[in-house]
Amino acid sequence: xxxxxxxxxxxxxxxxxxxxxxxxxxxxxxxxxxxxxxxxxxxxxxxxxxxxxxxxxxxxxxxxxxxxxxxxxxxxxxxxxxxxxxxxxxxxxxxxxxxxxxxxxxxxxxxxxxxxxxxxxxxxxxxxx
Length: 129
Prior knowledge:
globular; mainly alpha; about 5% strand; Arc Repressor Mutant, subunit A
């Protein structure tokens, strides 16, 4: 699993990890039933405290993104499609985060559009219900 954390970011590390795993599930990169690394393994891989990863996994369980725990390991929960209004809201939030991050990099509107277009061209085809 390809996760990164920015220790200089004002966003708590557990939240950075949670957001990335949630995005991987929503994009289909992590499918239903896929195992996640153990708390200790992911903490070691990212160079963070095990308690940070444990908190992230707990938040993901509460949100219904993952299930399981100690005995059988943590796995991606059954993925359910979001209702259109919730999907639209999450998409708007994701777009706002992308634009904000791009602006902090100094990108203008055209560069942001080009980056999104390139990402869409590289991405897997969308899942259809």
